[in-house]
């Protein structure tokens, strides 16, 4: 007992010490800031050391940043209208009536002003930008983990944080800058000016049409479909209550969020009652108001986020990363430091509010056409497993081979919602056998380890880790086969053997150069799609486009140019192709992949696309969890994937994605024929390498000798049979795998690849190991 009491006393003593330290530090800081404001030299020196990187801003500097609130940023297609002006996709922030910002406190409901003052800053009209006791109180509440926290930032400080400061990290240096700037801002602008700028700067989440709501006018329209001046008391209280946690209180994110927002609204109303802004009667009447019934209804014509939400959000992110790099930030380093997400959010806000013009690579006609046609005559199923519901999805990308520009994409089969995933650009999936040309055969030909006619013995072989054997689909083996034949039918064993002969490090080095780096723990199974991590459709498609571009790799991109509000170019895409494969290797791989669509695992495609010089590769993961086809002409590469978000098995065979691919190809060719020239051909550059006859030549010779001996024995057996017996049948030779879909021509099924999804804890304990690696 005494031991526990002693521990509690030490804990109380430590807490008193922390409180005393915190209080002392705060008042010391406050004194320094006061001295700074009064011009005391020592105060200026110490404070200057804390905010050494922050420039001394004039009123004009503040005005420039604050005026950015009245600018909107826009996104454009690559297409132009009849006047040769780029076709606008939409506004990044608000558009139409959502675009309007208030110019005076008289432009909003008095209830809204009172709600902000009562909840966010009760001393707003009397302080000088900061309230030391409020900051100390907030720090104390955080220290003792109080159930209810009141916040320490004044409205002026919040405005500085929202608009002026770029660094959003919650540290002492940033807080010091915030306080200094708030004091200066308060001295240069009137209270009502600051309040107007503040109400225009606050983010309120997404409205009923999924548009970003910046400013109270946008919030009033996006949440309740009324002008900010027409907000009633409970609506004003609801909006004011959203400031600190706009997503958690967003009524369009579900019933739970709505109820959280209503509780917050009730707190705001109570604050207004306590400060004398409303009467008890008004308070009780407001509590009875049906907020849910007053919410705005969707308007499909509202802005770009309604018509092209996946494009707009993709452009937001890519533009933000461009601006980050423009400011000298290293995205990879930010990720390692855990600061990428917070920094990205800060720059996304700049994209939305600084008047930028973002010119995309998207072809509107092609985008509209392929998204309309992609799912034609396809049935997408739903599945539920252990309470998790899944819907079959489709992701596809079309890339210009010459530049890497993304011309169009299919983001999924579901309509956009706030939790929607872009299956074309963002979702990483296991690649299946589509990886074989990129990791195995392309590098091996480039390194002169093999040539297309090199013989490889297709046989059952053990795994390097001793866990079992690699097998082909159907557990059939074909003896000596050429590399070309092995790729045509997507046999697993030859790919493993070639990869091991090439060297894993060498093969993986090519993936890194192609923008699809391997995981550090990947091994030989990666050769047949057994990777630890997957890749996005966009990145896989760009990697395949390298073969179509004579071995030159272009990183996929979505933005061609970014200008500021005055039209000055601040960033423009510079094409910088990287030589990965020689033209000879690229042509040889392309020629091999031609056979895939002519008579191999991709014949379903070849029998339906006529007149084009077409090459491509299928890919399937274990249990049909991921179904791929990536194909290309001399001008464009189209990659398509289908599957579930949660790794369920598809209800279809691998023709499902191929049908979608055919739909996409035909729609794109019809809508944008300039990218689909039937006369374009892959040109043979000459001097093709063909110097490797076989791998494991001795082993192949022994295999052939054994087969000859077996054939001789069969002949001898036949010759020695009594004359009244029927002749012995020749040994059967297993045909290539065949799903029998729409013959002729017959289409082989794609063998599966090792999944990257985590298996159940008891998987593999109840039955012998079976080859999980698909084609």
UniProtKB/TrEMBL annotation:
Compositional bias of kind Pro residues: 723-761
Catalytic activity from the UniProt record: Preferential cleavage: (Ac)2-L-Lys-D-Ala-|-D-Ala. Also transpeptidation of peptidyl-alanyl moieties that are N-acyl substituents of D-alanine; [GlcNAc-(1->4)-Mur2Ac(oyl-L-Ala-gamma-D-Glu-L-Lys-D-Ala-D-Ala)](n)-di-trans,octa-cis-undecaprenyl diphosphate + beta-D-GlcNAc-(1->4)-Mur2Ac(oyl-L-Ala-gamma-D-Glu-L-Lys-D-Ala-D-Ala)-di-trans,octa-cis-undecaprenyl diphosphate = [GlcNAc-(1->4)-Mur2Ac(oyl-L-Ala-gamma-D-Glu-L-Lys-D-Ala-D-Ala)](n+1)-di-trans,octa-cis-undecaprenyl diphosphate + di-trans,octa-cis-undecaprenyl diphosphate + H(+)
Basic and acidic residues bias: start-end ranges: 705-718, 762-775
GO biological process: cell wall organization; peptidoglycan biosynthetic process; proteolysis; regulation of cell shape
Top-rank lineage group of the source organism: Bacteria
Alphabetical keyword list: Carboxypeptidase, Cell membrane, Cell shape, Cell wall biogenesis/degradation, Glycosyltransferase, Hydrolase, Membrane, Multifunctional enzyme, Peptidoglycan synthesis, Protease, Transferase, Transmembrane, Transmembrane helix
GO function term, MF aspect, one: peptidoglycan glycosyltransferase activity
Residue span(s) of domain Penicillin-binding protein transpeptidase: 395-635
Keyword Magnesium listed: no
Residues of the Glycosyl transferase family domain: 96-272
Residue span of region Disordered: 705-775
Listed Gene3D superfamilies: Biosynthetic peptidoglycan transglycosylase-like, DD-peptidase/beta-lactamase superfamily
Protein's UniProt name: Penicillin-binding protein
Protein source organism: Thermoactinomyces daqus
């Amino acid at each position: 007992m005494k031991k526990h009491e002693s521990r509690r006393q030490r804990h109380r003593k430590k807490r008193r010490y922390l409180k005393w330290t915190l209080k002392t530090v705060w008042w010391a800081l406050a004194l320094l800031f006061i001295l700074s404001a009064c011009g005391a030299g020592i105060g200026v020196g110490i404070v200057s050391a804390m905010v050494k990187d922050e420039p001394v801003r004039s009123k004009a500097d503040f005005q420039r940043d604050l005026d950015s609130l009245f600018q909107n940023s826009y996104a454009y297609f690559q297409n132009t209208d009849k006047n040769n002006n780029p076709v606008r996709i939409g506004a990044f922030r608000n558009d139409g009536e959502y675009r309007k910002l208030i110019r005076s406190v008289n432009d909003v409901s008095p209830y809204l002003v009172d709600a902000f003052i009562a909840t966010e800053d009760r001393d707003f009209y009397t302080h000088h930008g900061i309230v030391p006791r409020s900051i100390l109180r907030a720090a104390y509440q955080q220290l003792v983990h109080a159930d209810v926290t009141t916040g320490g930032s004044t409205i002026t400080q919040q405005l500085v944080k929202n608009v002026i400061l770029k660094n959003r990290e919650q540290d002492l240096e940033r807080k010091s800058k915030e306080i200094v700037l708030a004091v200066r801002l308060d001295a240069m602008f009137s209270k009502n000016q600051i309040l107007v700028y503040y109400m225009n700067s606050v983010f309120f989440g997404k409205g009923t049409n999924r548009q970003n709501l910046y400013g109270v006018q946008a919030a009033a329209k996006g949440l309740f479909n009324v002008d900010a001046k027409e907000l009633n008391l409970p609506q004003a209280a609801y909006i004011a209550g959203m400031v600190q946690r706009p997503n958690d209180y967003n009524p369009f994110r579900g019933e739970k969020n709505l109820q959280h927002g209503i509780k917050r609204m009730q707190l705001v109303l109570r604050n207004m009652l306590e400060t004398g802004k409303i009467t008890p009667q008004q308070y009780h009447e407001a509590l009875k108001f049906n907020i849910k019934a007053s919410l705005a209804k969707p308007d499909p014509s509202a802005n770009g986020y309604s018509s092209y939400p996946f494009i707009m959000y993709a452009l937001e992110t890519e533009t933000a990363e461009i601006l980050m790099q423009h400011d000298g930030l290293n995205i990879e380093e930010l990720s390692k430091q855990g600061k990428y997400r917070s920094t990205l959010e800060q720059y996304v806000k700049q994209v939305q509010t600084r008047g930028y013009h973002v010119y995309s690579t998207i072809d509107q006609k092609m985008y509209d056409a392929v998204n309309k046609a992609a799912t034609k005559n396809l049935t997408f199923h739903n599945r539920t497993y252990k309470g998790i519901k899944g819907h079959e999805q489709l992701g596809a990308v079309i890339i210009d081979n010459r530049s890497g520009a993304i011309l169009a994409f299919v983001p999924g089969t579901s309509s956009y919602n706030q939790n929607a995933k872009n299956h074309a650009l963002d979702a990483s999936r296991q690649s299946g056998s589509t990886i074989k040309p990129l990791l195995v055969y392309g590098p091996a030909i480039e390194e002169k380890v093999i040539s297309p006619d090199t013989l490889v013995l297709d046989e059952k072989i053990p795994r390097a880790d001793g866990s079992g054997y690699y097998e082909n689909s159907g557990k059939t083996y074909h003896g000596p086969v050429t590399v070309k034949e092995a790729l045509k039918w997507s046999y697993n064993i030859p790919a493993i053997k070639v990869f091991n002969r090439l060297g894993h490090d060498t093969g993986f080095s090519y993936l890194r150069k192609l923008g699809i780096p391997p995981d550090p723990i990947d091994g030989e199974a990666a050769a047949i799609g057994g990777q630890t991590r997957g890749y996005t459709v966009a990145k896989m498609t760009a990697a395949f486009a390298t073969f179509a571009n004579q071995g030159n790799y272009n990183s996929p991109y979505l933005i061609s140019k970014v200008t500021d509000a005055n039209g000055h170019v601040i960033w423009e895409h510079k094409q910088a192709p990287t030589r990965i494969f020689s033209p000879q290797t690229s042509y040889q791989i392309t020629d091999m992949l031609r056979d895939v669509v002519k008579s191999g695992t991709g014949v379903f495609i070849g029998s339906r696309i006529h007149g084009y010089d077409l090459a491509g590769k299928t890919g399937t993961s274990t249990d049909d969890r991921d179904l791929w086809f990536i194909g290309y002409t001399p001008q464009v590469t189209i990659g398509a994937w289908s599957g579930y978000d949660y790794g369920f098995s598809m209800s279809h065979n691998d023709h499902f994605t191929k049908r979608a691919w055919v739909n996409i190809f035909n729609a794109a060719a019809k809508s944008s024929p300039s990218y689909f020239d039937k006369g374009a051909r892959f040109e043979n550059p000459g001097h093709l390498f063909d110097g490797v006859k076989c791998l494991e030549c001795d082993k192949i010779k022994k295999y052939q000798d054994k087969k000859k001996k077996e054939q001789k024995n069969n002949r001898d057996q036949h010759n020695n049979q009594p004359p009244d017996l029927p002749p012995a049948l020749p040994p059967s030779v297993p045909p290539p795998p065949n799903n029998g879909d729409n013959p002729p021509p017959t289409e082989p099924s794609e063998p599966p690849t090792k999944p990257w999804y985590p298996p159940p804890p008891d998987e593999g304990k109840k039955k012998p190991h079976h080859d999980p690696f698909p084609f």
